[in-house]
Amino acid sequence: WAMYAEDIEAIQRLKREQDAVILAHNYMTPEVFHGVADIRGDSLALAREAQHVDAGTIVLAGVHFMAETAKLLNPAKRVLLPDLRSGCSLAESITPQDIAALRAQHPGAPVVTYVNTSATVKAASDICCTSGNAVQIIRSLGVDKVIMIPDQYLARNIAALTGVEVVTHPGACEVHERFTPLDIVQIREGHPGVTVLAHPECPPDVVAEADFAGSTADMQRYVETEHPVSVALITECSMSDNLAAQHPDLEFVRPCNLCPHMKRNTLGAIRTALETGGPEIDVDSAVAEPARHAIERMLAVR
Ligand code: 13P
Ligand code: SF4
After folding, report:
1. Which residue numbers in the chain have pLDDT < 50?
2. Which of 38, 181, 225, 242 is the most buried (most CB within 10 A)?
3. CATH superfamily of the domain spanning 2-87+263-276
4. Do residues 194 and 232 make contact, with C-beta atoms less than 8 angstroms apart?
5. Same fold for the pair 90-174+285-300 and 176-258
6. Structural element, H or E, at residue 196
7. What is the pLDDT of residue 23?
8. Is the CB of residue 261 less than 8 Å from the CB of residue 247?
9. Ligand number nearest to the C-alpha of 48
């Protein structure tokens, strides 16, 4: 941590000077997550918390769609994303035209859009979901068929849990699609008694090999309520690093995969964002209102 001390101290000072708070996703590296973040969580928690930020500036230590969501939910605030290149393979996989084509093929089916999408795509949707609330969102609609985009694996995993017919799109998370069922078989062989928790962005055959599937916050809750002695988190690497810092007695089994987009949020990038006041995220006024509606409709489902 000595190598991070100067940046951490500078960021803490800049936050006070700039009336800023840092919202950090669970995939931030520990020096960001535990060193400078004010609010931490999964995509759902960060969206909920963004609504209630009083400070003038939000620094979103995460990816572009998370910064857009914060801006949509708290438009009076200045929202900074430390590196504009922090994208997401899911967000890049789909356009509003793809949604229009799906609606034409499946008339009447509501469009449930994963938050890992651009505001433009959200604006073309009926309601959003995250991996933490997808089952509740689908059930709240009370229909037997939905269009759930853009993550084909999340859609198939949620279809299996709800029994609702799900039409999807060939999007995937470049981090979670790399896991295979064999990875889990080998983890169990090498670590008898390990509990395997998989993110639902993983392919269904990977989820089928796991003991539990859920969002990053669900994984944290599982660890803190079920008290396993050894866990393998089938997700982005920093999730284990951050939980390990809070649970030194728990054994964390790797492998894991890195998200290159999340990893652009270095202390240096966060410090520069606070020093320069940019890059700032704004949402086109033509899409802001319908996109906000799709997110707020999601947040109203409890
Ligand atoms: P959650 O933290 O909502 O589970 O999302 C995982 C993810 O891949 C975010 O980009
Ligand atoms: Fe997108 Fe996957 Fe990275 Fe999350 S982990 S930002 S879903 S590419």
Report:
1. none
2. 242
3. NadA-like (3.40.50.10800)
4. yes
5. yes
6. strand 195-198
7. 99
8. no
9. 1
Would you say 297 and 276 are in contact if contact means Cβ atoms under 8 Å apart?
Answer: no
Yes or no: say if 195 and 228 are a contact pair by the CB < 8 Å rule: yes
Domain boundaries, the chain: 2-87+263-276, 90-174+285-300, 176-258
Determine the pLDDT at residue 194. 98
What would the two tokens of residue 76 be? 């009076």
Quick one: pLDDT at residue 212?
98
Quick: pLDDT tens for 84-129.
999 999 999 999 999 999 999 999 999 999 999 999 999 999 999 9
CA 1, CA 13: separation in Å to the nearest integer? 18
pLDDT of residue 6: 98
CA 232 to chain centre: 19
State the CATH class of domain 176-258.
alpha beta
- pLDDT tens for each residue of 12-55: 999 999 999 999 999 999 999 999 999 999 999 999 999 999 99
The protein residue whose alpha carbon is closest to atom 3 in ligand 1 is 43
Testing ligand 2's pocket by substitution, the residue of 68, 117, 153, 173 carrying the most ligand atoms inside 8 A of its CB is: 173
Q: Which ligand is nearest to the CA of 130?
A: 1
DSSP-assigned letters across all residues of 109-155: --EEEESSS-HHHHHTSSEEE-TTTHHHHHHHHT-SEEEEESBHHHH
Using the atom order of ligand 2, give the atom closest to the CA of residue 176.
2
CATH number given to 90-174+285-300: 3.40.50.10800
Residue 92 pLDDT: 98
